[in-house]
Amino acid sequence: MDAITAEMGDDLLSGVRPRFDARKMRRFDSFWNWARQDAYEWIQQIIAAALSGLSADEQPGIDNEERIQQLQNCADEQLVKMLAGIIKVLSASSNSMLEPAIALVRAMHDACKDALGTLPLYHEFSQPMQPQTHVAVTGEIVYSELPRPSEHTWPEYINHMKCGDLYGTPPLMHLREQTEDGHWAYSETYSSAYFGGLSSIAAQGISFAGKTALVTGCGQGSIGAEIVCRLLAGGARVVATTSSYSRKTLLSFENMYRKHGSRGSELVVVPFNQGSVQDIDSLVSFITGNASLGWDLDFVFPFAAISDVGSTATNLGSRSELAQRVMLTNVLRLLGSIKVAKERTRRTTRPSLVVLPLSPNHGNFGGDGLYGECKLALETAFNRWESEGWEGFLSIAGAIIGWTRGTGLMSANNLVAQEIEGHGVRTFTTSEMAFNIMGLLHPLIARVAHRQPVWADFGGGMSRVQQLNAIVGKAREKLNVESQTMKKIAASMAQDYEVTNPVMSAGRASENVGLTPLAKHRTHFPSPQSYQNLQHLHHLQDM
To answer: What angle do helix axes 430-438 and 223-233 make, rounded to 10 degrees?
Structure first.
């Protein structure tokens, strides 16, 4: 055992331990309950605001399109009857201040009534954002996200993404097709079909009713989590895995379903370690077996990943090998296990569309272990699809995921995202990248993927930039120098003010430069009393 530990390392040995346990499954499917609660909460907010005397401008809006759409996605006969009853109750009151609430309930009732008998739809309600970094007067580096002034709507976003430049390079996002010599080249035909599907989603939405999906690597703040939300909004049944199974994690998934779950949708959460072979087999058996879920997967998103910051060719260790196992070896094992399950159950006419997370980072950053090697090696799936006979069982859509702000792997680089965009690279939010990926699920592209693998480049032009690591390093150095300079200026101003204004100088100086005054805590103990003053307590002595 000591020899194995010395060879493999603690990170790898502990990282491959199985975590799957079907008894810990949590299923969320009560869309009808959350819809009623959300409707009541919204109505009460309007009533409370009106009765508190708030002006019309200060009251919460009744034209929240996203909230109305969510209620429509969950609408059933009972919800419509409930809203009709509320209208009668409120209308019976002579209080004119209830008019905004009555108008809201009427709008909710009419929208939900119109939605009866229709399929739930995923619509994108987020807004394209841009990164902003500045150094405050205190020297603190502040990062924020602002709406992009040139992209107020998703059609505007799509128009920007499908534009190339004056030198004839492919658009910031595009699809490729395999040429006769085996290379993958920009395809104007497939790209046009992709943007057509994406535009359709932006304008009309898309339904995933009757579809089932598996998403790994969907922790908070991840692209996978955003994908789960969009699948649920469209009415899909989703298995989401988590490697950090806890009450806090389950509550986050419950909130996810509460906000996005729609009619017919389900969210099944199970503990799972993508580094474990046993968990791979157990998970697929759990999903496809008739004794458990008995689902046939339509979509698969193997997005689990492990960061390995600081590992280079000179110090590759046990964690690097674990990361390779999670992001490469066991991804292929997962696909193989799904194929075997389909063969066993004779489901050969409904292939699972697998979206593989590729990357433009092929060692460009450096110091990230075997990340680049894993992403490059996943590209072999395009050839394996034909050479290993995956057709009819699996369809492959490889997505090159560009610089995505806020994810676990890239959040440390948020501060330099604005500088990177100055070099012609488009960076994305997790919502924007999830929206891009949803375009691959549109029937226009899914049908192509069933005939041959699809290669989607969502890199945002990142692969065009030379010496990216050097640019990132200079951007960090520039921010650090500016931060240290501002800190010294702030400290100098505080000292100057202390000399010229000795009374209350610390507080006044911090007000001038935006510094936060330090607390000056004092504890006052009671003063001791003499022995004579405690005569009435002498009978307690030696108790």
So the answer is: 50
Question: What letter does residue 365 receive in the DSSP assignment?
Answer: S
Measured between alpha carbons, how far is residue 173 from residues 191, 211, 229, 531 in Å? 8, 26, 23, 86
Residue 510 pLDDT class (50, 70, 90 cuts): very low
Angle at CA 26, nearest 5°, toward 21 and 32?
A: 165
Give yes or no for residue 514 having a pLDDT over 60. no
Calculate Rg over the CA atoms of the chain.
Answer: 29
- pTM for this prediction: 0.88
108, two tokens: 């909710």
The per-residue pLDDT for range 267-307, each reduced to its tens digit, is: 999 999 999 999 999 999 999 998 899 999 999 999 999 88
CB-based contact 427:405 (threshold 8 Å): yes
Q: What are phi and psi of 96, to 5 degrees?
A: -70, -15
User: Element (H or E) spanning 212, and its range?
Assistant: strand 212-216
The residue type found at 367 is: G
Under 8 Å CB-to-CB from 154, ≥6 apart: which residues? 124, 128, 202, 435
- CA–CA dist 170, 185 (Å, integer): 10
Taking the C-alpha atoms of residue 428 and residue 459, their distance in angstroms, rounded to an integer, is 9
DSSP 185: E
Token representation of residue 143 = 């990062």
Alpha carbon 220 to chain centroid, angstroms: 6
